[in-house]
Design a protein that fits this description.
The complex is a heterodimer of chains A (about 50) and B (about 375).
Chain A: H1 2-32, E1 36-42
Chain B: H1 2-12, E1 16-22, H2 28-37, E2 44-47, H3 50-58, H4 66-72, H5 80-85, E3 87-88, E4 91-92, E5 94-101, E6 104-108, H6 109-114, H7 123-135, E7 139-141, H8 149-171, H9 180-194, H10 201-206, H11 209-217, E8 222-226, H12 231-237, E9 247-251, E10 264-273, H13 280-290, H14 293-301, H15 318-329, E11 332-334, H16 342-357, H17 361-378
Parallel strand pairs in B: 7-8, 10-11
Antiparallel strand pairs in B: 2-10, 3-4, 5-10, 6-8, 6-9
Classes of the chains: A alpha+beta (about 50), B alpha+beta (about 375).
Amino acid sequence: MRRIFLSIALLLCVTGIFAAGKQEAAAAKKEVGIPGELVIANWLGGFRV
Amino acid sequence: MIIALEKRFQELHPEVKVKDINVTSGEHRAVIKTMLLGGETVDLIFSAWPSFDKELHDAGLLVPIDTAWQQYGWDKSLNESWKKLGTIEGKIYGAWYLADNRSGVWYDVKTFEKLGLSVPATWDEFRSVARAYKEAGMVPISLGAKIWAHTDVFENLLLRVGGPEMYMKLAWHEIPWNHQVVRNALKRWQELLTEGLFPDANTMLATDWFGAFQQVIDTKTAGLNLMGSWVNVRAQQEFKLVPGEDYNFFQFPVIDPKLPKNTTEISGKDWLVTKTGKNRDAAFLFIDFVLSREGGGIIAEYGSGTPNRLVPLEQYDAVMSEIVKLFAANEVVFVLDDLLPSELSNEFRTQLQKFLMTPTDETIETVMAAIEHKAKEVY
């Protein structure tokens, strides 16, 4: 019984960390997310470096 | 490669829509400058010429990137010398992302081996190798003097007879163009020309840089070609050749053994953020991607060199990894022609073409005097 309880607690803990990590990543992405157009003048085309 | 960088960036940042304006015709510098002065919306451009960066800066067309540099930590990718190269009047404007070796002489490996040649380290050995091609009925050293590629020969000769210090002094016009060191460099070139180790003048003036390279690795009508290391990409993509196995390079030989060996002439390309752009933050984000390990990896996989130190050596091919090692081990100087103001660069190219037409002592004097005359006007 005690072992089952510990397993559930551990599972909840891991899920919590994962969820928090996901939230953090989403927040970070939102923070760097820069909408709009980026215009690049390309004088080499797609081939030459 | 630019397209590949843009594509991956777009995947990572779908919120930014990358739009390319293709600048394909004419003299790129003039076209870009006119475009920016005309107020066209452009967030990012790339340049290959420090002197052009300065021209755009002086015209008030560039945005300094110091804050983004700090914020994103680009010191991790680029060392002090590259940062310095991108700095104008105390502020950073250019983020260098490509680096090319301009002191490499290319050859076809099978022909080289068939003639029993060894990589020449000295001037005499170099001349012997060139003579071996001549004896085999080939053009010893091909040269595309139609626009600019002949200037590389002069610059490497200058570096080998005068060393990096004199080279930079000439670049900043701290010594005149009729200095003895310029004469010495032209005299060395004269030796090769009068011995018939280059094609005839009309052929050189009618050939562009790529045509001259092609003669070595494709048609195999010429033995050697001094050319920037971007040809490593062309050889693989266009001719499906294997670097190190089908073609290879050696560094321009030592002329004066008292000077540091293997001082390397380099060029490169840098990103510039323009004032006409509307999405400066996205421009910084794109530069950050190009300077990341992943962005640098894309450049390396294309067969190009990058100054980005986050890219491990193993990611480069056999030829480019040798070049990257040269960058790290030797003093480097930026290609002289790209350091000169455009007007002087034009005169420099034209006068060297005149020298190729008639490589006499008299022409050497008139050529040096003409470039010096223009330099006095420009500086």
